[in-house]
Specification:
3 helices; 140 residues; mainly alpha
Amino acid sequence: MLRSQKTAITSLVLVFLFGIFCGIASERFVFNKIDRQHKKRRESLEQKFTRELELNEDQVVQLKTLFKETKKKHHDIRKLTDSMYDSVRVDFDMQLNGFLDQDQQLKFAQLQEEWRQRKEKERLEKEARDKKRKEKAERN
């Protein structure tokens, strides 16, 4: 192989790796920034309530517990609405399959499987990110 070809291939590989690095770094920066903003907002609200309402230590503990419970309720509501969206999607799929021919149904089933796999991959990645964030928060 010519030296210029090796240089070109090496350059392309380095550019590719640099792109991956930049993507990972920016993704982590964005998610960390969002986490910091949420934490800062919650802490600011806790401090404001503590100061303005003149909460005692026991009330501050109760307030923090209330924030955690409310966050869980919001998460549960999101789960509920997700299941409602899923039922609408299933109904759509059934109606669509009702007017597709066999070949189209097979192709649609393949598309659905691809979407399901992508969604599962994204879910697992999100769980891993959430676990890392939780561990990091517990260390701090």
